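Please study the protein below:
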Amino acid sequence: MGRLDPTSPFATRSLAAPALEIKRSALAVSRPTGAGAFEGYASLFGMVDMGRDEIMPGAFRESLSLRGPARIKLLWSHDAREPVGVWDSVVEDARGLKVAGRLNLDVARAREIHALMREGAIDGLSIGFRTQRAVTDRKSGVRRLFKVDLWQISLVTFPMLPQARVSSVKRVASPHNDLAARISHAAANLQ
């Protein structure tokens, strides 16, 4: 678990508002399509991460209903100066926080991330949130998070929850390959 960069517009020093927390998770994130689409799990319920936190089912429910995917930022490595795309879908299911997003391939950093995701070099997901309700088990030291205010989900190299990963990157044939396939198909039909 980390803290946001103090220069970030999300960082606060107010005593009234808890600090934005970051959870890096390593569940399979899909390799992106040629158009940059991918999906995966940004958080899994019932699993203790390397920071000794466990997200409980329903923890994201209120935040998701208030924000929706359009107001949850898709960042590179929790850097508010590096938005790299948009979330099309962010939902809680029985397993955890399932996400589907698209890298904006007009952005240089997103193109680099896209290339690395397609090779499998980047596949981690991590969440940035403010804790609203949590209980720490004194015996185990595990903090159970029952309600969080989700601000952002980042693509990362090393997630705090090793199982939070991109599960699939959808591939689309390049226009060059598509043209070659059409020519081959047309040639086969001529014979």
